Each structure stands twice: as C-alpha cells, then as structure tokens.
Amino acid sequence: MKRSRALTPLLLLMLAVLALAAAESRVIKISYEDGRRSGNLRNGPWIYESNREDGIVGTVGELKILARKAVLEAPEGLSMQAAEGKRKATFEGGVTVLRGRLTARGPHLVYSEETGLGVLAGPATMHQEPAKEGEDPVDVKATEMSFDVDTDISTSSGQVELTNGRQRGRADHVYYEEERGLAVFTMNEGKVELVRERKDGKLVIHAPEVRSLTRSKKLIATGGVALVDGDITTTGDALYYDDASGEAIVVGTPARSENASEGFKTSGGTLLHNVNKHRVQVYRKPFTLPLEEFKKVGE
C-alpha cells in the first residue's frame, strides 16, 4: 500500500511565503520627477506623462523602464492597492530598458506583475556591453523581446539577428542568459544560420538548434548539422566548436566531409574539422558532446 505524500503545514507555509516573495518582487514602482500623474487615485488607471523620453521611470527588480508615458491599471473590480501583483503597466512613446550591462529599445512595452515579464514590441534592439576587456559586445535585433524580472533571461522572437564580434546568428527565436552569455538559437521550421567572418572567408553553420557561449566563443549545434568552410562541407548529427582552437568536432552515423574543389571525401563516427587549416580528419579519441556546459537555467 502506497503512503500518501500530502503536503505538511510547514511546507505549505514555506510555499506560500515563496509565492508572496515572488509576487512582491514583481510589483513595479513608477516615478515621474519630470512629469505628472493623473487618473482615479483608488481604482486607476494611473497615467504618467512627461515631455522627456526618460521622464517616466518604471523599476522592478534589476529592470528599469524609461519612457515618455506609462499607464498602470488594475484588473476590473480591484483597487490599485488590492491589485498589487496583478496589475499591468504599459509604456509608450519610445521605450528604453536597462538591466546591468544591457540596454534595449523599442516603441512599446507591456509589463505584467502576474508573470514578471516585460514584452518589448519591435522593431526592437538590444545592446550589451562586454563583461571585461577583450570580450565582444552582444547586439540583437528582433520583432519582439521579453525580459524576465525573476531571472537575467531575455527572449527575442521574429527575424532575430544576434551579433557578437565577428559572429552573426539568425533564427526565429533566441533565448539569452545575460550574465552568462548563453544564446540558444531555434527555428519554427528550417535551420539556424550562424556565420563566422574570417580573413580568408566565412565559416557557416546550419542546424535546427545552436547554443553559443558568447563570452568564451564556444558552441554546440544539434539536430543534424552542416559546417561550410569554403569548398569544404562537413555534415553530421551534431558538432562542438571552439573558436580559440579553430576546431570543430562533428559526430554522426557517420559524419561526412567533402572538399568540392579537390574531390576529396572522408567519413567516420567522429571527424575533426580544423577551420584554420581547412583540414578534416577522422577523430580517433573518445568524444562526448559537452551538453552540460550549454544547459539553460532549469534544464
């Protein structure tokens, strides 16, 4: 006979405290030093307006939202105070989002206290300064971007282009962990295109999913991949690439490579493609794709 695993009163209390803390951390504060507020004081909506693009400032967690105008409203039937944690804030008139080293811009943003998500309508752009000297900035263009106040995660969708130094990726969706610099490119249909500009030509990777560590310049591609290095095309099930060494390790059943100009072909369970030397050979050491290094938060 199985024992019932009912939640204890202490655990229920802990869960309630955590839920309350999460709700409180999502409550937005709006200031208007160079502006004005109008609207029904008790039931709202509260309307904030300024002549300056940064005259209205919304603050929630580490996120700051600057705009000319904001409207904060409660669900029907609730007062503004009673609705804290369930309200919606709409910013317009040119919006700037600030968090850490990141600055994003777009025409319109809607923030939900209930979900903790701020959705920036596009065309939207995002720029992140390097964490330290020697690293590259990250720039993103997209139709829409969302920012999670509970984490440092932003998500871009709709004709997304992410540029990081000499690397440019295009996809339908890009999940991005801002401090860690993990970018996950995915497509609704078709394949992600990742291009690495070099002095002697482009290195192009196609795959349904690409995960890139923008700070260390490492990536994995999965779901069926193709690496195009000038006249050399290497295909397989997945690959790992380290820009510091210029080496891509491609695994497959088998992995295959062809040099179109020389008519040279090779195949094997694992291939080593050196993009600096434009050379492919069978990789004879044991190799496991380093999936743990590229896991998203919560995976």
Name the descriptors:
lipopolysaccharide transport protein A fold, 6-stranded antiparallel beta barrel, 1 helix, 57% strand, mainly beta, 299 residues
The CATH C-level class name of the domain at 214-288 = Mainly Beta
Percent in helix? under 10%
CATH homology superfamily name of the domain at 214-288: Lipopolysaccharide (LPS) transport protein A like domain
- Lateral arrangement of strands in the main beta sheet: 12-13-16-17-15-14
What is the CATH fold-level name of the domain at 214-288?
lipopolysaccharide transport protein A fold
Q: Round the mean pLDDT to the nearest integer and report it.
A: 92
How would you classify the helix and strand content by structural class? mainly beta
Largest sheet: 6 strands, antiparallel, barrel
Mass-distribution shape: elongated
One letter per element, helices H and strands E, the order comes to HEEEEEEEEEEEEEEEEEEEEE
* Terminal residue distance: 33 Å
Detail the poorly predicted runs. 14-20
By CATH, the architecture of the domain at 214-288 is named Sandwich
Alpha plus pi helix count = 1
Rg on CA atoms, Å: 24 Å
GO molecular function: glycolipid transfer activity
InterPro entries: LPS_export_LptA, OstA-like_N
Protein name: OstA family protein
Domain Organic solvent tolerance-like N-terminal: 79-180
